[in-house]
Amino acid sequence: MAKYSPRLKEMNLELVQTIAEHQLTEDRLNLQLTRLKLMYDFVSALNAAQTLNEIYQIALDGLCAALRINKAIVMVESAQGLKYEASMGVSNTYSQSIEIFFDDFYSDRPNQSNQSADLPKTFPHSATLPSDRQLQELFHQEKIGAWAIFPLDYELRHLGDIVACFDEPRQFTEEEVQLTQTIVTYIAIALTRKQAEQALKESQQFIQRIADTTPSILYIYDIEEGRNVYCNQAITHILGYTKLEVQVMGEQLLGTLLHPEDLDKISQHYNRIRKIQINQDINPAIALDKNADGLFLIEYRMRDIQGKWRWFYSQENIFLYDQNGYVKQVIGAASDITKLKEIENKLQSSLAEKEVLLREVHHRVKNNLSVVDSLLSMQTKYVKDAEALKSISDSQRRIHTMALIHEQLHQSQDFGKIDFCEYLQRLVNNLYSSNSDNINHVDLKTELNPVVLDIDMAVSMGLIVNELLTNAFKHAFPHQEQGLIAVKLYKSDGDRRLNLIICDDGVGMPAQINLQDTNSLGLRLVRILAQQLRANLKMSSAIGTSFHLTVDL
To answer: Where is each Histidine kinase domain found (predicted)?
Structure first.
C-alpha cells in the first residue's frame, strides 16, 4: 500500500490542477458571456436611444462600467470646436473647465494638437497625469489622479472624445483595451447614425415647413399607379380636403376632383409623359407641353370641398423612373389661378365689347365719309367752274383714301394695326381704275413687301400715295404716250426703316417746281404729311419723276 502512495498523491495533484484549470476556463467563459451579454445590452440600448443625450448617457455608463470608474465626460465636435455634452461623477465647474481647456489648447496650438502628449490622437493604453499645470490643479481639486482620452472616430471623421477620469495613473490590460475599443467604436457608430438621422429629420422638417408655407399645391403623382403620393398643406387651404382624404381617394383621385371636360386632357397629358424613357430624347409631340426650363405645363379645373370649380396651372417635372426606365412619378406645383381666370374672362368680355364698338366706329366713320363724298358729288351738279370741280374731285379722292382705311379696319381683327401692303394694293388699284383715260396706255407695276402700320401712319402714308399717284396719272403722260408707273414698298436697315417709292418714266416735273415752296395743294399736303411723319422725302426728275419717302418705324 505504501508503494502506491506517491503515485496516488501525484494523481490527486494532477486531478486538482485539472479541476482548477477547468474552473478557471469556466470562469473565463462565464466572464466572456457576461461581457458579451453586457455588450449586447449596451449595443441594444445604443440602438434604442431616441436622442443624442440618451446616447451620451449610455456611453458614459458603458465605458465607466468597463473601466471600473465613476467619472467621465463626453465632448463632441461642433462648428465651434469640442463642446461639453454630458458627464458622470464630476462637477459642472470641472466639465466647463475641461471644455475651456480644450478650446484654448486647440486655439493656441492649432498645428500641434495632433502631436500633443496631453491630447493624444491615438487610442490610449494607459491613464496618465497631464503635464499641464492648470489641469493638474484642476485634477487635484476634483480628486482625480489621471485621465485617458478615448477618441470617437468613425469613417475618417473625428466626432469627439470621451474623457475618462481615474484615481491614479495605471496601465490598461490588453483585454481592457480591446473592450474599450469595441465600446468606443459602437458609440461612434451610434453617434454618426443619430446625427445623420437628426440632420435628415431637420432637413425634412425644413423642407416640409417650406412646402407647407408655399401658396401652391406641391404634389407627387404616381402615373403608373394613378394615385397621389404626396401633397402639402396648401391642398387643405385651397380645396378644403385633408392630405389623408386625398391619399384615400387613391386611383379615383382624378375622376373625383377633375372637371369632366378636363379629364381626357389630363389623361392624355400623363400618357405622353409616361412614354418618356430615361436618357432618351423627348418626342416632339411631348416637348410641346414643356417650357424653356423643361417643365411640363397644363391648365385644368378641380372641385373644392364646397363643390366649386377652381382653375389650376401646373408645372411638373420627372421625379422617378420605373425599373424599365419609363417615367413612374412626376413632381409638380399647382397654382390656383381662379381669380386670374375670372379677370381674364372679364377682360375678354370687355375686349369683345370694345371690339364691337370699334368695329361700329370704323363702320360709321366710313359711312360718314361716304355721306360727305355723296354730298360733294351732289354739289358738282351745281358747280360750273372747272377749277372748282377739279378741287371737289381731288377732295373726293382723299376721302376715298381715308374711307378705305376704315373699311379695312372694320373687317380686321386688330383695330390698332393695319396690313399696309394689302391696303396699298387696293388703294393703287382703285386710283388706277378711277383714271380710266390712262388704263390703255399706262402700265402699273407694284412691288409691295408685307408691313404692318398703326392707323395714324397708315392714313398719312395713304394720303401721300393718293396725291403722288394721282399727279402721275394726270401729268406724267400728257399726250397719252405709252408709259410705266411703279409703286415700291420695302423695309431697310434691319427692318427699322420703311421705304416708299413712286416713280414714272413720263415727261418729268417742270423745272420751276420746288417741293419746299409750291402752290400745288397736293404737293404741299405731301410735304406737310412727310413732316408729321418725320420722314425724309426726295424728288428726282432725271428720268421721269421719282419720289422716295423714308420713315423710321
So the answer is: 360-553
